[in-house]
Design goal:
With 126 residues, this protein is mainly α. It is built from 2 helices and no strands.
């Protein structure tokens, strides 16, 4: 019987040490769990916020793209009408000019139209 007493005393001592360890560790584990839970909730909120911001950005990009497309189409129409008007005016003037003068006048007119086209292209590029 005396041999069993030290074994029981050792077991009691072991479990008392385990109890002290648990009393020190368990609150830390619970705190770590609470911090992880809070972090997870904040991350979910952050993800939702990023999703909303991304949606707003995409909406604005789409709206800007549509507006820009409409502006470009209006500019193209206006430019095309302007160029056609100028071409008609040049053709009328060429019909009244002699053949050698017509070539020089045509070269000047083409140069002017190319300059206008270059300016229009540079404006569209901006």
């Amino acid at each position: 019987m005396s041999t069993q007493l030290p074994k029981i005393a050792e077991k009691i001592k072991f479990w008392e040490e385990q109890d002290q360890i648990n009393k020190a560790v368990i609150p830390r584990i619970l705190k770590a769990h609470d911090l992880a839970t809070d972090l997870s909730e904040k991350f979910i909120g952050f993800s939702e916020t990023v999703g909303k911001i991304e949606g707003r950005i995409n909406e604005k990009i789409t709206n800007n793209r549509e507006t820009t497309h409409k502006e470009i189409e209006a500019f193209r129409t206006e430019f095309s009408e302007s160029v056609n008007t100028e071409i008609k005016a040049i053709k009328e003037q060429l019909s009244r000019v002699s053949a050698p003068s017509r070539i020089m006048y045509l070269a000047i007119a083409i140069n002017c139209l190319l300059s206008v086209a270059a300016i229009a292209i540079s404006l569209i590029g901006k």
